[in-house]
Amino acid sequence: MYFLYKKIQRVIRSVYKTLRSLFLTWAEVFVWLTALLLLAFVPPTETQQTFCVWHHAGLEACPGCGMGHSIAELFKGHLAESFNRHPLGMFAVLVIVWRIIRLSWFNIKAIRTLKPKSYVENL
């Protein structure tokens, strides 16, 4: 009986670790997608609200704000304006999209390898 209890405990721990890992990686995908969608649909030049910590601290020069404006201009299709705002804006979008695709691919592959029958067979 104790042996069966230990086996069940090991299976539950393994499933918990897998689900926790999947949740954390899907959370990162969600954050990146939300950031890109906000930059695509909320024009940063027309809004009074900002999440910039540097702006709230009273500093004028922020390296990240130019990046956000560059990405927003890129989603509008203004390539020259995007490059003028920040030369690395296009590269940042490519890196973020690559990260989203890679994490999604990993998560889908991990979900497909989850086979509850194998856990039951190993009991």
Write the layout of secondary structure elements.
Elements: H1 2-41, H2 53-56, H3 63-76, H4 79-85, H5 89-113, H6 116-122
Helix pairs in contact: 1-3, 1-5, 3-4, 3-5
Summarize the structure in words.
The chain is mainly alpha-helical. Helix content is 79%, strand content 0%. It has helices at residues 2-41, 53-56, 63-76, 79-85, 89-113, 116-122. The chain is elongated, with a radius of gyration of 22 Å. The model has no long low-confidence stretch (mean pLDDT 81).
Distance between the termini: 12 Å
Structural class: mainly alpha
Uncertain stretches of 5 or more adjacent residues: none
Q: What portion of the residues fall into strands of 2 or more residues?
A: under 5%
Give a short account of the largest sheet.
none
Order of helices and strands: HHHHHH
Cα Rg: 22 Å
Helix coverage percent: over 70%
> What's the average pLDDT?
81
* Basic shape: elongated
Query: How many individual β-strands?
Result: 0
Number of helices: 6
What would a concise description of this structure say?
This protein has helices at about 1-40, 55, 65-75, 80-85, 90-115, 115-120. The protein is mostly helical.
Record keyword descriptors for this entry.
single chain; 123 residues; mainly alpha; 0% strand
